[in-house]
Amino acid sequence: DAGITQSPRHKVTETGTPVTLRCHQTENHRYMYWYRQDPGHGLRLIHYSYGVKDTDKGEVSDGYSVSRSKTEDFLLTLESATSSQTSVYFCAISESTYYEQYFGPGTRLTVT
Amino acid sequence: GQQLNQSPQSMFIQEGEDVSMNCTSSSIFNTWLWYKQDPGEGPVLLIALYKAGELTSNGRLTAQFGITRKDSFLNISASIPSDVGIYFCAGQLTYDKVIFGPGTSLSVIP
Description:
Number of helices of chain B: 0
Radius of gyration of chain A: 13 Å
Number of helices of chain A: 0
Structural class of chain A: mainly beta
Oligomer: heterodimer
Shape of chain A: globular
Number of strands of chain B: 11
């Protein structure tokens, strides 16, 4: 299994509070991704990183920001959580040549 | 935007039966990927396909990259209870362009 951990695994927070989710990898892969998974929508890309300090937006980036200061860590921040951000969040990593993605175990976030 | 269609949406089969599912798109992809997701877990990569026409096996699983590059198929032979889960296909163009299908839910009746 790819060495990917996510923390926390579960979190309940209130509307309007900031939340940071962490993804940590031990594979030294260049590319890292944040997805959210919701019933009826499948996996949707929020943000991704193609190197340290290099990030870009995905399909559903509004309300989220990311940072990558080290190869192994990719942080996802919800500046002011809303109920629509209740979801399961997955981190993934990939490396060239073929870029197939390997997923972490997920973080279940509930915003009340 | 781009979409993948997976069929069937769900399957209920007897243990020991073979399973077939497929994934189609109106777009061409360079790579096709098949994942399995168990409840409460992240998707696990089962098979990756890199060339049109390629047929690849992983134990009881066999997948094929369609010759048109717009589809892919996954077969599971002699199903067992631990095959239960949701199977996702994904079409990939490059590192930042991956489209995931909606999934096929598989239930195995002992």
